[in-house]
Amino acid sequence: MAEFKMPELNSVIIAGNLTKDPIFRQTTNGTPVVNFSIASNRRFRDKNEDWKEDVCYVGIVAWNRLAESCRDKLKKGNAVLVDGELQSRTFKTEDGSNRTIVEIKARRIQFLNKRSGNGEHDKDEPSTFTDESFDSLLSPEDSDLIHDK
Fold first, then answer.
1. How far apart are CA 71 and CA 56, in angstroms?
2. How confident is the model at residue 139 (pLDDT cuts 50, 70, 90)?
3. Contact assessment for residue 8 and residue 139, using Cβ atoms and an 8 Å cutoff
4. Could you say which of 2, 14, 31, 144 would form a disulfide bridge with 27 (CB–CB 3.0 to 4.6 Å)?
5. What phi, psi does 33 have (nearest 5°)?
6. pTM of the prediction?
7. What is the DSSP letter of 68?
8. Which helix (H) or strand (E) covers residue 75, if one does?
9. Phi, psi at residue 25, to the nearest 5°?
């Protein structure tokens, strides 16, 4: 019997609105990083056929030029489409206990309601920003799965 090899694929696409302004920092070696969270809504009918809404709050982290673009272009309430991968990290809280969170490490972020100051669409500027450093972490097989060839 042939052995089945599970692909090492970790890919997420989600759309939502920022719940607060992005938090921009730089690591000790100067690498830009931004964190923000989005609320993604899901509408459904309950057993009585009444419409209900469920909200999923998701943390997002972006690095390098993508982080700088988020710092410059995003604010609370903006709609975004995020393409990335799930990652978990553990840290110590102030009381000394460990806490683990799962968040999305963004590869691409599309700014969905990009407007210039006068309310007109800004046609000269891209609405999708990509973290080019992300692809260097992929194996050739994973890269083929993610990118159209």
1. 23
2. low
3. yes
4. 31
5. -145, 140
6. 0.73
7. H
8. none
9. -140, 175
Of 3-7, 70-74, 91-95, the poorest mean pLDDT is in 3-7
Q: Which domains does the chain have, with CATH numbers?
A: 12-146 (2.40.50.140)
**What are phi and psi for residue 70, nearest 5 degrees?**
-65, -45
The rounded distance, in Å, linking the Cα atoms of 141 and 113 is 34
Among candidate residues 84, 87, 113, the one with its CA nearest the CA of residue 100: 87
Question: Sign of torsion, CA 66 25 41 77?
Answer: negative
Nearest C-alpha neighbor of 54 from the set 84, 18, 16, 82:
16
CA-angle at 93, arms to 18 and 104, nearest 5°: 35
- The answer to whether the CB of 36 falls within 8 A of the CB of 66 is no
Give the max Cα distance, the chain. 65
Average pLDDT on 73-91 reads 95
Tally Cβ neighbours within 10 Å of residue 18: 19
Which two tokens mark 66? 């993508």
Q: What percent of the chain is modeled with pLDDT above 70?
A: 74
What is d(CA 145, CA 139) in angstroms, rounded to the nearest whole number? Answer: 10
